[in-house]
Amino acid sequence: MSAPESSAASPASLWPLITGYMPARLVHVAAELGIADRLATGAKTTDALAQEIDAAPAPLRRLLRALASIGLVEELEPGRFALTAAGSQLRSNVPGSMRNLALMFGGERAWRSWGELLHSVRTGESGTRRVYGVGTFEYLAANPGQAAIFNAAMAENTRRITELLVSTYDFSQFRNIVDVGGGDGTLMVSILAANADVRGTVFDLPSGVAQAPQKLSDAGIFERCEIIAGNFFRSVPEAADAYVLKYVIHDWDDEQSVAILSNCCKAMHGASKILLIERVMPERIEATPIHHRIAMADMNMLAMPGGQERTEQEYRNLFAAAGLLLERTIPLPGSEISLIEAKRG
Ligand SMILES: C[S@@+](CC[C@H](N)C(=O)[O-])C[C@H]1O[C@@H](n2cnc3c(N)ncnc32)[C@H](O)[C@@H]1O
Q1: What angle do CA 168, 171, 173 make, to 5 degrees?
Q2: CB 150 within 8 Å of CB 137
Q3: pLDDT per residue as tens digits for the range 246-296
Q4: Could you tell me the CA-to-CA distances from 12 to 7, 34, 101 in Å, in that order?
Q5: Ligand 1 atom at shortest distance from the alpha carbon of 136
């Protein structure tokens, strides 16, 4: 009897893994060409679309067929395509948009950095450093266009969990909160919107906070939130009740992570908390969707910024080295993400 199609060992399940870069590239090219935005107003023929986006009709038709085969568009009749609900997530500036994530994960830096994965596994050096000779955030500081895409991609990712986060954890216990490495302020907007008496500070590099004034002003919370450009390897704003670091520590190696956490520890008052929001690596990995997401994120940390996802014990050790004590880890229900709470040790 032949193995069932769903068996992990079957050729049917190995094939999409061997060729997995193909759909990833399709999604990226669709995002670059703005196909979803063009189809948002209604179905179009290949020729009409080709003219609008300045592409050759024949290869565009082939791209659209491939996109139809993965459910992002639908071929209504030969050569005429409409956007699907899944494809709509590649539109710009709509709730739930993932266009910047597609631009970032399929963009040149990700592509070239992941292309060096063999080197990274052999040496531990990140692909980004190998290709560009600098770390991710130095690269972004020198490339404002890419930084804007990165910041918007982070915001798109963050928006997917903000509701869950503010309903799972009680931020109203704090009077003021600093979001360290808070990017464009998307997380702070949600925390402040859900907690009317809390004040916030978004702290990040100049390239990280570049879009924050607009974001806070659009959300109407400017009067309750400060934006500070700075470097967390030097210092962070002092005496807040809580220091949130979402997807920050995973960007860095242990020594750098301890340096960031030590600076937070120095800035804290006796009752301040540190709240890391991270994926917690299980002690033993299994072939489940959540473990898969954590393991892929970990590989992405190796390829791009040169950091890593960590187990709870590894976070406990980092905290201890920075003079902090891990108090509890709160998994966000149904997600791979946890909130890790710590205080001064
Ligand atoms: C992976 S992003 C996470 C952004 C945001 N916390 C989120 O989850 O959407 C890491 C953030 O750390 C910031 N960052 C990197 N190096 C920094 C430094 N030396 N000082 C302050 N922020 C820094 C980056 O600019 C970026 O916004």
Answers
A1: 125
A2: no
A3: 999 999 999 999 999 999 999 999 999 999 999 999 999 999 999 999 999
A4: 8, 32, 28
A5: 15
| Residue 143 pLDDT | 96
Q: Is the CB of 154 under 6 A from ligand 1?
A: yes
Predicted confidence (pLDDT) per residue in 151-175, tens digit: 999 999 999 999 999 999 999 999 9
Q: Which of 260, 274, 248 is nearest to 158 (CA)?
A: 248
pTM over 0.90? The answer is yes
CA distances from 63 to 22, 42, 59, 164, 334 (A): 11, 18, 6, 36, 34
Distance 79 CA to ligand 1 centre (A): 44
**Least confident among 8-12, 89-93, 333-337:** 8-12
* Residue among 28, 119, 250, 269 flagged as catalytic: 250
Is there a catalytic annotation at residue 250? yes
Q: How far is the CA of 19 from the centre of ligand 1 (A)?
A: 32
DSSP 43: -
Cα separation, 67 vs 56, whole angstroms: 16
Q: What is the largest distance, in Å, between two alpha-carbon atoms of the chain?
A: 68
Quick one: angle between helices 312-321 and 254-267, nearest 10?
A: 60
Q: Which structure tokens are listed for 292?
A: 């898969």
